[in-house]
Specification:
The chain is α/β, with parallel strands linked by helices. The chain has one domain: Rossmann fold (3-Layer(aba) Sandwich). Helix content is about 35%, strand content about 20%. It is built from eleven helices and twelve strands. Strands 6-7-8-3-9-10-12-11 form an eight-stranded mixed sheet, with helices on both faces. A four-stranded antiparallel sheet has the order 2-1-4-5, covered by helices on one side. A hairpin with a 2-residue loop joins β9 and β10 (about 230-235). The longest helix has 18 residues, at about 185-200. It is globular, with a radius of gyration of 20 Å.
């Protein structure tokens, strides 16, 4: 891809500790790049590691090992003022607008707090910028919204406030964690159009986390597919939708709303349910669910290999072109 890399992970691992049980790697050996002014969609079912990846990239979580480089700087383990400066450049839009806003504070408070904390603005200037942010996300007249509480807003309005709060820090990179999944279908297109417009106006880069391949195809230039904490396929959006190479990606597409009316692929007789995330796991995480799995798949993790231009998949069935 011709554009410059904005944020990049190298062999990233994120570990969670479970008492009296084996620790788990929610993300393992992740190598991912997001380019300047690009939207990369990260897709997969619940538990695949998407949100954990997003939280690690904005450093709400510290990785167990590996690196995160932002604009060439290693931000994997920064703390204090350096981490605060990083948070002014990399922000997160949470999934649930009903939970991400404090019900005891007004819209104005939610927007002015990051302005004053990260931007160090005076109260007067912070209020002016607050009105500008509300206008940017389509909440006008702004004076009507600034003193409202979250319970006085619709779901779509709350999510627009959450987007405005992320913009308040003046970031260049935003992790949008399923920003439309909690909204009515009629409101989803408006939020996607807003994200698209903000990107064009401000040159933003997004990691767009979703389980919805239709919205990923609409918003993103590239799509990366995760399963069991591992990256299994990445390609330009149109290529991935039209010619998926990994069996899991094909299953996701088959289960999408655009495929309603088609028969789903059968499951193995001993379908294991959730993937194994324990440290001792061997082989491909999708192997227990894959109808094409071989003995090799149970013992070795396949590496990402090129299958077409800018298209890679981690599967022993895939041949390099």
């Amino acid at each position: 891809m011709a554009s410059n890399v904005l944020i990049q992970t190298n062999d990233l691992h994120v570990r969670f500790v479970r008492q009296k049980q084996l620790d788990i790697f929610a993300v393992r050996s992740l190598n991912l790049e997001v380019h300047e002014k690009e939207t990369l969609a990260l897709v997969g079912e619940s538990g695949s590691g998407k949100t954990t990846t997003g939280h690690a990239l904005v450093r709400l979580l510290q990785p167990e090992s590996g690196t995160i480089r932002f604009e060439g700087e290693d931000v994997s383990r920064i703390r204090g003022k350096r981490l605060e400066r990083y948070h002014s450049r990399a922000q997160l839009i949470f999934q649930d607008p009903f939970a991400s806003l404090n019900p005891f504070h007004t819209v104005s408070y939610h927007l002015q707090r990051p302005l004053r904390r990260l931007g160090h603005l005076s109260p007067k200037r912070a209020r002016e910028v607050c009105h500008d942010l509300l206008a940017q996300v389509g909440l006008t007249p702004t004076a009507t919204f600034e003193n409202k509480y979250p319970h006085e807003l619709s779901g779509g309005q709350r999510q627009r406030v959450a987007i405005a709060r992320a913009l308040a820090a003046d970031p260049v990179f935003i992790v949008a964690d399923e920003p439309i999944s909690m909204l009515d279908v009629s409101l989803r297109a408006g939020i996607l159009h807003l994200l698209e417009s903000l990107q064009a106006d401000q040159g933003l880069s997004y990691l767009y986390i979703t389980h919805d391949l239709a919205s990923a195809r609409y918003l993103a230039q590239r799509i990366a597919v995760m399963y069991g904490g591992s990256l299994v396929e990445i390609a330009p959006a149109a290529d991935l939708v039209q010619a998926p190479a990994h069996p899991y990606t094909r299953l996701l597409l088959q289960a999408s709303s655009s495929s309603w009316g088609q028969d789903l692929a059968p499951l193995p007789e001993k379908h294991p349910g959730a993937p194994d995330l324990t440290i001792t796991r061997k082989g491909c995480p999708f192997a227990p669910r894959c109808l094409h799995a071989m003995k090799k798949c149970e013992q070795e993790m396949p590496e990402l290999i090129p299958v077409a231009s800018d298209h890679e998949a981690a599967c022993f069935l895939v041949s390099s072109s």
